[in-house]
Amino acid sequence: MKVNLDRDELVEMLRRMERIRKFEDAAVELHKNGEIRGSLHTSHGQEGEIVGACMALRLDDYMVGNHRSHGHPIGKGAKLRGLMAELLAKETGVCRGKGGSMHLADFSVGSLGETSIVGSGIPVAAGAALGAKMQGIDRVSLCFFGDGASQEGAFHEGINMAAIWQVPAIFLCENNGYAVSTPITKTALVANIADRAAGYGIPGIVVDGQDVLAVHEVVTEAVRRARSGGGPTLIEAKTYRYFDHAANMGRDLGYRTDAEIDDWRAKRDPIALFRARLTGDFKFKDAELDAIAEAADSEVADAVQFAKDSPSPAASEAFNDVFAPAA
């Protein structure tokens, strides 16, 4: 695999992966303490496919996430303070404290938002890509969704229309093997979700989601194709989530073993694999990489303190941004 990234870009890749991991660590602790309410879906283990894909985009390109949503805007380059404040339902959050963990949006980095409705981001991303095409601008739209969402009607409808209209979109299935607690083998007979691309007449590609560089290479080509008028691509990143579907579910559902999780952590951790490439192939020093991780710790700690110090939204703002002003 040829890597067309300079040293600064490689550093930024690791920086964003570390930010996601540290952000999620902090979010889990805040959730345990009752400072984050409701469900919390974390990206531990999926940092490679998120960052590899997002760094193939320009800042002004569109990105649509899903309910497992913290990592996506971080991967796109969003600042941490507003994201953490949103998780704590504070006025300084990216959605002014009204969206919470599953509904983050940051237009400043092209993040159009995320939703708890499984599969619903697919037609949103297709629509954003159609809008770019109709306006004659060369933005592309990247959509993250899970293997469970690939069984939804919105998957077929959204990708089918995107293919027919030849819109500049990349549909990236984060196949972590389970939809809540149901293995993908119980819900799909195809070996790969990407195999379904043939039915829409578009490319379908499977990539190792734990290899940030492999994901970056595949998505970069899909972006090039989309931006040049070649239409959409369906990419399936084989990845894994370390925690349960949501942080408050516990591991008593019996759908996977501790040994399975520990094996992925020990052998297929995306950050560890990337660090090995950086020190091996690219001659980085361990001290350099440790400094990046420490800086991410500091950034997250700053974001947590900022969120805690921020005010809650005023009751008078409850209906702001809900209804359009009267004509």
Fold and architecture overview:
- The protein is an alpha/beta fold and 327 residues long.
- The protein has one domain: Rossmann fold (3-Layer(aba) Sandwich).
- It is 42% helix and 10% strand.
- The protein has 10 helices and 8 strands.
- Strands 2-1-3-4-8-7 form a 6-stranded parallel β-sheet, with helices on both faces. A two-stranded antiparallel sheet has the order 5-6.
- The chain is globular.
Helix content percent band: 40-55%
Query: Please, what is the average pLDDT?
Result: 95
Task: Tell the overall outline.
Answer: globular
Structure summary, number of beta strands: 8
Query: Largest sheet, if any?
Result: 6 strands, parallel
CATH topology: Rossmann fold
Give the SSE map.
Layout: H1 7-32, H2 47-54, E1 62-64, H3 71-76, H4 80-87, E2 111-113, H5 121-135, E3 141-146, H6 153-165, E4 169-175, E5 178-179, E6 182-183, E7 204-208, H7 212-227, E8 233-238, H8 258-267, H9 270-280, H10 286-309
Parallel strand pairs: 1-2, 1-3, 3-4, 4-8, 7-8
Antiparallel strand pairs: 5-6
Can you give me a brief rundown of this structure?
This protein has 327 residues and is α/β, with parallel strands linked by helices. It has a single domain (7-306), classed as Thiamin diphosphate (ThDP)-binding fold, Pyr/PP domains (Rossmann fold, 3-Layer(aba) Sandwich), CATH 3.40.50.970. The chain contains ten helices and eight strands.
Q: How would you describe this structure in keywords?
A:
327 residues; 42% helix; Rossmann fold; alpha/beta; two-stranded antiparallel ribbon; six-stranded parallel β-sheet
